[in-house]
Amino acid sequence: MTDVLRRGRASLAFGFFAQGVAFALLVTRIPAIQDRYGVSDALLPVFLAAVPILAGVGSVVSERLVRRVRPSRLLRWSQPVVLLALLGVGAGDRVAVLAVTLAVFGLAVGALDASMNMLGVSLQRAYGRSIMLGFHAAYSLGGILGASLAWAGAHGDLALWVSYLPVVVLLLPAALVGSRWYVDGERGGAEGEGTGGGGVGGGVGFKVLLPLCLVMTFAYIGDSTVSNWSAKYLQGVLGSSEQLATVPYNVYMVTTLVGRAVGDFGVRRLGAVAVVRGGAVVAAGGFAVVASAPGAWVGMLGFTLLGLGLCVLVPQTFAAAGRLAAEEDGRPGASDVAVARLNVFNYVGFLIGSPLVGALGDAWSYRGAMLVPMVLVLVTVVYARSFGARPDRYGGGHERPRTADVGRGSNGL
Questions:
Q1: N or C: which end of the chain has fewer CB within 10 A?
Q2: Rounded to 5 degrees, what angle do the CA atoms 269, 270, 274 make?
Q3: What is the greatest pairwise CA distance in the chain?
Q4: In angstroms, rounded to a whole number, what is the distance separating the alpha carbons of residues 349 and 385?
Q5: Distance between CA 335 and CA 200 in Å, rounded?
Q6: Any idea what DSSP says for residue 183?
Q7: pTM, 2 dp
Q8: In sequence order, what are the residues at sequence separation of 6 or more whose Cβ sits closer than 8 angstroms to the Cβ of residue 28?
Q9: What is the chain's percent helix, strand, coil content, to nearest 5?
Q10: What pLDDT, in 10s, does the model give residues 117-135?
């Protein structure tokens, strides 16, 4: 089973990487997409909001689907749909085509995000140590590559489909081949083995998950603030040049990658509670630096701190949800249902963050607006205890599930 777990871990990491590439290629070419389809500035926010809303719908549907099918199968077929929808966005020429392809992209992304994190949580339980941050590091690496490819396409004035086609041609078959080694944890080992999704637990109630849902929302409010407002803030408030204004988000992405790459070691050594508290404090400090920065370079220091702080919150929130579900409802699949429910708040935070900062910036000031996500992220410190396991459960350095239990339908999760 050790080889099975290793292959499962590697194939899932590639799935995270491929999703990072695809999502970055879409969001970083929004101006080009707008020009290609002739979408007005008034209509563009509708299209942009539709993607996370439909992704939330896809995550809710996933919660129902994993009661009947393995998460690995859901992931295996949702990832190609995401890649093909991305190509459809680049190849179309009518607004109706854009609407349909973005709708498909959003629904598939919701299923993909939910199922990827289900498998990640399940594998972490099987390993008996923190590995969840490593999967999200692969996503960050894919995002950096996707953004770089998008820059190259824009710099070379390439048509969207020309930029997207080579990526889809390479990633789609690789993802399908890699999906052969996905591991479903307690529900049947490798993707092609074991039983179906029968007997899946109903999961824990919303009230139990509420602290983690709030943390997820606050983390994505912070993340969307950086992705949508860092360039405008640096140029409009801190007086940087247009070229320098593009740097903060790249710095944020790199520090997110670095923080996630080493984050699992921190969790193993210090525990999830300490890492989450530390991440929240560092992120809040980053927002404070950004809000009070006298110039562009100090502002970039703040965005650097934000990357190091925010990067640990989302992966640990998924891991905590899976662990909490295992403690509250030991039936097979309870963790999957909890992860799907939690994943919806990924998109809630994304939808709230950018409009919130924009509205506060226009009505008050952009410096003041940066203090709001600072306070929200700092609230995570209060909820950090939710990331610890009960003394008699795995996760607190005590009893661990045996690797050999994975795939037996036992209490391996």
A1: N
A2: 155
A3: 60
A4: 21
A5: 10
A6: B
A7: 0.89
A8: 146, 147, 150, 151
A9: 80, 0, 20
A10: 999 999 999 999 999 999 9
